[in-house]
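Hi all, long-time lurker, first post. I run a small reading group and we've been trying to get comfortable going from sequence to structure in the token notation. Rather than ask abstract questions, I figured I'd post a concrete chain and ask someone more experienced to write out its structure so we can walk through it together at our next meeting. Sequence below, copied exactly:
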Amino acid sequence: MFDFTIKINFITLKKLHISSSIPIKIVADNPFMETISERGEKVKIIPASTIKGVLRSSLIKISRALGFNVTPSVNPEKIRDKNDIVTAIFGKPGGDFSKISIENAYYKGDTQVYTHVKIDEETGIAEEGGLFSREYIPIGEKFSTKIICKNLSVEETRALLAALVNLRFEGIGRNSFVNVTIEDVSPKEILERLEKDEIIHILLDTLRRQNI
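-- Answer (accepted) --
Happy to help. Here is the structure in token form:
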């Protein structure tokens, strides 16, 4: 069993919007949440819950291809096996236990605001008064986070890294895509032990490269 931290970088391949619950129009009808960094700068928040959610979904989608028997659902009441690989790593949805925790990611660069039109799904016609705006992180921008892993087995580490690789092909936010790379795994002595496993070595090598 291993305790380690992974620093992850994301680079936007398509403009990125993360829905927020902010009720006040600041720069757009749907803005990013903001906070002040330790340096006193305004930064946009990409919530840890969003990152963890898409990572969990990524593992659910590839789990059977990896040879794991997983209930393909994010609904707690539909999870029959509490020992499946997804639940073992992420915990049961709505529960407290998880072997990983993820930090919020922060973006301090410039954003873009685009205006959209709401379309009536039945008629295919623009709704009256249906203009709204969203704030986006542009293509090619970078933000980072850390995944803190506690008591992961070799098998669970393989599954987590495979989910990170697959995240490159999964949407995040509102149909955006990101390139995912690993910047660092610490402590170094744990990384050296993990890389003795051939599959983990291949997955880490893949995640160290920027191009898919």
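A couple of things your group might point at:
The CA atoms of residues 16 and 175 lie 8 Å apart.
The two ends are 29 Å apart (CA to CA).
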